[in-house]
Amino acid sequence: MVTQESLAASDAQICQADALKYWNSIPATVNGMLGGFPHVSRIDLRGSSAFFEKLRRLHSPPPQSRLQRGVDCGAGIGRVTAGFLTKVCQLVDIVEPVEKFASEVRHQKMSGEGKVGEVHVIGLQDWIPSERYDVIWIQWCLGHLTDQELEQYLSKCLPALKSGGWIVVKENVSSDPDGEDIFDEQDSSVTRTDAKFRSLFEMVGLKIMKTEAQTGFPRGLYPVRFYALQPE
What is the largest CA-CA distance in the chain? Predict the structure, then answer.
């Protein structure tokens, strides 16, 4: 059971200055973004595309055209933007706190083709959305926010959603046998349990419309889960 005490205590070791120091030491490559597992990128992108297609089918009738605007939060070098989001959105904004990663996005072909909108070099905890989005995609970055910051961040995302829009969270999920979050000293992040995510979403007033596990990743990696969220 996730208690208020565990919700408050599990993120106490997160230090965003340490996290930024770590990510600034990582090369701006797919290998760097994926921690030495570049071969999972195709599986990851294919899984995201399939999951999002299922979401779009929930509409009746399913929309046939690309969505107008999305945002890639914690975008890194734009791997997900280039490989997936620009295929389902006409325009994709970027939120990324590491300048060299954001610079890599600006110099990619998709930016020159007008597929990338605003590039915000800022942490999620400090970002204030100024646009409204069909999809807010958040992948492999929420572990750098404390629970309180995560609640506040998601609360800021709510009014930035268009009617019928989605917040999609794709994150590692703790496999701790005692059901606890796992702190990683290397990059100063927390891998949360499924129960923790669900509790935080509920606190913010977000309803899980669809959730499933990413499949096809090598053994030894954390389980990865999608959560498609909409306001209650």
Answer: 49
Six-digit token pair at 81? 């933007």
- Hey, what amino acid is at 144? H
Helices 147-157 and 194-204, interaxial angle, to 10°?
A: 50
User: To the nearest 10°, the Cα dihedral for 146, 48, 201, 55?
Assistant: 160
Distance CA 26, CA 30 (A): 10
- For 8-53, write each residue's pLDDT tens digit: 457 889 999 999 999 999 999 999 999 999 999 999 999 999 999 9
Quote the pTM value.
Answer: 0.94
Which residues are registered as beta bridge partners of 95?
73, 120
CA-only gyration radius of the chain, Å: 17
CB-count burial class (<10 Å; 0-12, 13-18, 19+) for 3 = exposed
What are the residues whose beta carbons fall under 8 Å from the beta carbon of 209, sequence distance 6 or more?
55, 58, 166, 228, 229, 230
Q: Where are the beta strands (DSSP E) in 42-132?
A: 67-73, 89-95, 116-120
CB neighbour burial string for 159-191, b if at least 16 within 10 angstroms, e if fewer: ebbeeebbbbbbbbbbeeeeebbbeeeebbbbb
